[in-house]
Write a sequence for this structure.
């Protein structure tokens, strides 16, 4: 009898402990894994950590008894370092969710670790659309943009606006080729024509000869299928060679507000490209960005990568709250996140698709002329919007194993 | 055929950057026996210097052409006084490693303060616009770069090979003890030489600021190419590096016409070939 | 040219005894790592780089040849192993063999080209060759450009050992490292190694004594490249990816840094150096933006104040060979 009672007591105690662990564990640990010191540090970097911090503050979870920790690290754009940090975070530090993880090579590498360890990654920085295509996992959500969307939105909108002949300047590696291929498909589908393309080596300092060829092609649009320093240098030199002044239009296929800021309006004016977030889009984005830039050392406005970190975390917090606690089970949480609709002031209402793709509208912008700009960071004119359901790769074309056909 | 002419001309423009940078490297190697891996970082500093002059003091492009090389040159001389001079007589390797470290520090610090995407710098008003040469559109600024760097290169060559000061310098590297015995302050000359080489890098930086984005990492990858130029030309040979610099620009231009993907790599192919045939480079003295 | 390693003592019985003792201590420390709570993936990665640095040290410390392109071996073997495992589905041992053999073949070709030049020219040729290879790997489809080869299956070594288990993987990597280390140790203490040192000290004299120095140097180069490739193959199992960073020239620079910090031409220096640098990259990652600056400062301090490296200075202080 005595034994029975103690067993019973023990049993209830166990059950109580277990239910406490499952339903009422209110600890969350967030890891922001980004490039703090390299090429992309303006895009993510300390700004991403700040965005995460703001999301934690705005969620109001602390007042409800949640304990949220935030750590961040510099992956130095090296997949090796990134995977080791990610593993250690998940195994030792018990990190629940990895944010940012920009750079495609790094993003894909961490993608595998996160799946293996059943953790969560909300990727807001990597461009590769493979994250939700062939290499999709039940643990990863790709939040902000991808190459397919950029090509699709920019290509479609520009052809519609009369830019029906194109010439590409393509960075000579897989990423550039993918951008060119996807954009070409969209252009042809929309009734435009690609007159030619020239491949340039990665990290070129001089683009004049490629620009001369683009100029000679007489295409209406010169598409820049490159990234980072290659893009900014080619834009700067295009202005020098009078490409835009000569009546041709430049379309950047992967460009961020930080790039425009560093180029200056004089050089960047007239440039077309797609982003999914701009600080001056509406009252919600303006309010957030004001608070963000006040806390940045250099008073920068948030990039879409940083905005994505905020927006992604807000949705993550909402989901955990709806689940009543943190179950520390990546796939389960992600599944729930896909069920719930997303809504935040930065990206508006949206949803997450079964393949992990976050859906929201894509905006085609044109960079203002210097005389149109009212002050620092006032750079864009909105010239077209692609609705959320048309912006991204349709599920029917997806190679993601999670998509049932 | 027209496109080919255009590529050749464009190649010449790039060549002038290579020539200026490799000239500085060659001067430093020839006189100090140091492989200056910090050259790319100092080139970047030159461009940043121009930016600051414009935005903090309002001094435009023309004063920057003179002030930036002096400022960066002084920085270089401080480096030489405080660090590099202790390496005299040691293996080349140590100079290379030390300057590599310096490059990392300088680039890292700039990155911290000015971000990675860079800062804008406009073409000076006097050199805006371009002219139509029939076979291509030539921005006036590019034409200016070629002429100016050619003049600077030749002036440097003249200074070192034809003047009395240059003669002292060359003598000091051959036999420092003897030159000292003649009452010449050799360490000071070496410091000045390093300053000169560094100043040339900064000058190239100012020249490129209106063309390339002023970024902390703008010199990081360029430095490898410029090294190759110096090696092809013959380490330490002044004329060799000038000629090779321009020639390489042209060859790169041709490659861009025939096989653009390889244009960043052709220099290394050339370097291997040259070294296999003529180990000391095209004009190098025997090691 | 003043020697890079100014005071290597001749291999005396005492020196050999000292080195064996240190080796046993090192091996013992490494064996107990999984029970210490140190994160094993960090140690595994450091071991791979330690082997790479040791292979590099064989050339510079004992052959006097500074290779500025050792990343090409690391990366080549990594890509080949990754491809063999992922696409062809080869077993781990065959994958490692394939990768290492590839690096050896690369060593033969590049060695043949570069070994004929000395000093700074040798460094520049190796750099040029590795840049060429970088271009090749950027272009060829099987490497997937900047995305790299991802999600590489770890599989069962010899069909028995499950490499997906961290502890098993750790010991496999450890055995690989110790094996490679002993090969290098054996090499530098063999007659072949003595000739290498002689060439480093005074090549013309070695020639006049009748040694075909080019052949010795070529052999050392191939051996070094092969072992560097072996390290690259092992690393594939740890990182489960192969990417362009491993063939970039900055990686070659890092190897030089590791060896310099530990001590050029010392037996254990590269191992210590690799651990220091890898630990820095991992643990300084949280410091935000200062990683490259700190690396640079270490470079500068090393060159200016303790040129013999950590182990080199200790060995010099105690007049021991380590």
């Amino acid at each position: 009898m005595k034994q029975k009672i103690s067993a019973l007591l023990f049993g209830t105690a166990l059950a109580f402990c277990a239910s406490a662990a499952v339903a009422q564990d209110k600890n969350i640990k967030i890891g922001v894994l980004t490039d703090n010191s390299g090429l992309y540090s303006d895009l993510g970097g300390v700004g991403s950590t700040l965005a995460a911090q703001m999301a934690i503050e705005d969620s109001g979870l602390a007042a409800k008894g949640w304990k949220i920790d935030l750590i961040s690290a510099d992956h130095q754009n090296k997949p090796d370092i990134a995977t080791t940090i990610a593993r250690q975070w998940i195994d030792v530090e018990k990190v629940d969710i990895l944010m940012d993880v920009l750079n495609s090579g790094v993003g894909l590498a961490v993608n595998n670790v996160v799946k293996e360890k059943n953790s969560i990654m909300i990727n807001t920085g990597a461009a590769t659309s493979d994250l939700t295509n062939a290499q999709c996992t039940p643990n990863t959500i790709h939040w902000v943009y991808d190459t397919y969307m950029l090509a699709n939105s920019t290509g479609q909108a520009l052809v519609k606006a009369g830019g029906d002949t194109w010439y590409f300047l393509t960075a000579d590696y897989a990423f550039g080729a993918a951008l060119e291929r996807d954009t070409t498909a969209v252009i042809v589908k929309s009734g435009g024509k690609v007159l030619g393309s020239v491949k340039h080596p990665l990290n070129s300092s001089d683009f004049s000869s490629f620009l001369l060829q683009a100029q000679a092609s007489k295409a209406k649009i010169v598409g820049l299928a490159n990234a980072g320093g290659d893009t900014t240098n080619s834009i700067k030199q295009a202005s020098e060679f009078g490409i835009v002044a000569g009546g041709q239009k430049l379309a950047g296929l992967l460009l961020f507000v930080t790039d425009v800021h560093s180029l200056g309006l004089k050089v960047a004016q007239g440039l077309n490209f797609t982003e999914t977030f701009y600080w001056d889009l509406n009252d919600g984005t303006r309010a957030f960005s004001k608070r963000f830039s006040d806390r940045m050392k250099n008073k920068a406005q948030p990039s879409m990568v940083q905005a994505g970190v905020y927006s992604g975390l807000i949705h993550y917090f909402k989901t955990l709250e709806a689940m009543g606690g943190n179950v520390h089970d990546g796939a389960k949480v992600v599944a729930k996140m896909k069920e719930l609709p997303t809504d935040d002031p930065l990206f508006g209402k949206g949803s997450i698709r079964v393949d992990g793709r976050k859906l929201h509208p894509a905006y085609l912008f044109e960079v203002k002329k210097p005389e149109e700009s009212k002050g620092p960071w006032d750079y864009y004119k909105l010239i077209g919007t692609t609705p959320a359901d048309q912006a991204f790769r349709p599920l029917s074309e997806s190679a993601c194993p999670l998509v049932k056909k | 055929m027209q496109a080919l002419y255009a590529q050749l001309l464009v190649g010449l423009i790039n060549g002038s950057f290579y020539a200026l940078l490799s000239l500085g490297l060659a001067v430093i190697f020839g006189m100090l026996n140091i492989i200056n891996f910090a050259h790319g970082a100092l080139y970047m500093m030159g461009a940043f210097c121009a930016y600051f002059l414009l935005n903090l003091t309002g001094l435009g492009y023309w004063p920057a052409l003179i002030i930036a090389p002096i400022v960066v040159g002084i920085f270089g001389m401080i480096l030489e006084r405080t660090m590099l001079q202790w390496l005299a007589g040691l293996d080349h390797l140590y100079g290379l490693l030390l300057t590599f470290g310096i490059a990392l520090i300088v680039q890292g610090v700039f990155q911290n303060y000015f971000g990675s995407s860079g800062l804008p710098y406009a073409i000076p008003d006097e050199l805006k616009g371009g002219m139509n040469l029939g076979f291509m559109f030539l921005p006036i600024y590019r034409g200016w770069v070629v002429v100016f760097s050619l003049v600077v290169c030749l002036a440097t060559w003249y200074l070192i090979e034809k003047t009395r000061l240059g003669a002292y310098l060359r003598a000091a590297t051959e036999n420092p003890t003897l030159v000292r015995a003649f009452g010449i302050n050799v360490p000071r000359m070496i410091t000045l030489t390093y300053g000169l080489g560094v100043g040339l890098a900064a000058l190239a930086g100012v020249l490129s600021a209106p063309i390339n984005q002023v970024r902390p990492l703008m010199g990081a990858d360029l430095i490898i190419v410029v090294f190759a130029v110096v090696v092809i030309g013959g380490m330490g040979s002044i004329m060799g590096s000038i000629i090779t610099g321009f020639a390489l620009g042209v060859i790169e231009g041709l490659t861009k016409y025939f096989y653009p993907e390889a244009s960043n790599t052709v220099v290394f192919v050339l370097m291997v070939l040259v070294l296999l045939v003529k180990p000391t480079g095209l004009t190098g003295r025997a090691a | 040219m003043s020697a890079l390693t100014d005071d290597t003592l001749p291999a005396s019985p005492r020196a050999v005894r000292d080195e064996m003792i240190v080796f046993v201590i090192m091996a013992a420390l490494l064996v107990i790592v999984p029970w210490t709570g140190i994160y094993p993936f960090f140690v595994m990665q450091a071991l791979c780089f330690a082997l790479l640095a040791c292979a590099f040290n064989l050339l510079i410390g004992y052959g006097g040849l500074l290779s500025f392109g050792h990343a090409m071996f690391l990366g080549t073997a990594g890509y080949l192993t990754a491809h063999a495992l992922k696409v062809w589905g080869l077993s781990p041992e065959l994958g490692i063999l394939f990768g290492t053999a590839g690096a050896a073949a690369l060593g033969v070709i590049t060695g043949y080209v570069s070994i004929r030049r000395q000093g700074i020219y040798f460094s520049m040729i190796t750099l040029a060759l590795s840049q060429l290879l970088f271009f090749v790997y950027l272009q060829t489809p099987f490497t997937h450009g900047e995305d790299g080869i991802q999600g590489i299956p770890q599989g069962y070594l010899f069909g028995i050992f499950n490499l997906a288990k961290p502890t098993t993987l750790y010991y496999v990597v450890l055995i690989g490292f110790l094996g490679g280390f002993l090969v290098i140790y054996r090499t530098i203490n063999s007659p072949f190694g003595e000739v290498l040192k002689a060439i480093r000290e005074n090549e013309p004299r070695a020639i006049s004594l009748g040694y075909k120095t080019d052949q010795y140097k070529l052999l050392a180069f191939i051996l070094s490249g092969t072992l560097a490739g072996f390290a690259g193959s092992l690393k594939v199992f740890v990182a489960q990816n192969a990417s362009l960073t491993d063939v970039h020239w900055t990686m070659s620079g890092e190897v030089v840094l590791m060896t310099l910090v530990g001590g050029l031409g010392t037996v254990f220096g590269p191992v210590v150096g690799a651990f220091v640098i890898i630990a820095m990259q991992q643990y300084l990652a949280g410091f935000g933006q200062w990683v490259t600056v700190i690396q640079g400062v270490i470079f500068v301090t090393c060159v200016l104040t303790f040129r013999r490296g950590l182990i080199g200075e200790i060995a010099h202080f105690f007049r021991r060979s380590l």
User: Anything to note?
Assistant: Chain C is about 70% helix and 0% strand.
